[in-house]
Amino acid sequence: MSNQDSPAAPPRDLIVQLRHFIARAILNNLKVAALVGLHPTDLQCVNILDLRGPLRPGELAELTGLTTGGVTVALDRLEKAGYVRRRPNPDDRRSVLVHAVPARVRKLDAHYRVIQERLSAVLAGFSPEELDAVLKFFQATNAVRPGEYMP
User: What gap in Å lies between CA 31 and CA 46, rounded to an integer?
Assistant: First the structure.
């Protein structure tokens, strides 16, 4: 394959800025988890349920990269804290669906409001074409399942 056929390496500055963004997001999530008394992983399980809707525990395990046993422990803690509810799966009576509790999610959202406002302000400065590129980047990176990043 010639150099023209291989994808160009992203500029180092872009990778550095992406790493800064990820680090800040992780640290912010750790802070929010501590403020609301949740394990950081549990907080992300609630986030995924809020984004994706009700899921079977096995689906949540796939999306988080956790073992099914790890998801069970997280769900036990979240159910006890009132963040999720397990309900019978209407399509399969042998399984359950895990639902985020909307009122509890709204309380979590309050901790992210300032960040969401700041991100919206930043994104407002981008052209529609630039926003399309940003969206394409996040869609591509979000398509990679947890665990596929690691050897």
Answer: 16
Q: What is the pLDDT of residues 126-137, one digit of tens each?
A: 999 999 999 999
What CA–CA distance (Å, rounded) separates 56 from 97? 5
Residue type, 69: G
74 and 131 assigned to the same domain: no
Select from 73, 82, 74, 71 the least CA-distant residue to 107: 82
> What global pTM score does this model have?
0.84
Distance CA 9, CA 27 (A): 28
Residue 35 and residue 29: Cα distance in Å, rounded? 10
Whether residues 84 and 123 fall in one domain: no
Question: Could you identify the residue written with the tokens 């400065």?
Answer: 125
What CATH number corresponds to the domain at position 77?
1.10.10.10
Low-confidence ranges of the chain (pLDDT < 70): 1-7, 147-151
70 within a domain of the structure (yes/no): yes
Burial 6-28 (b: 16+ CB within 10 A, else e): eeeeeeeeeeeeeeeeeeeeeee
- Please tell me whether residues 122 and 74 are part of one structural domain: no
Domain that holds residue 131: 112-143
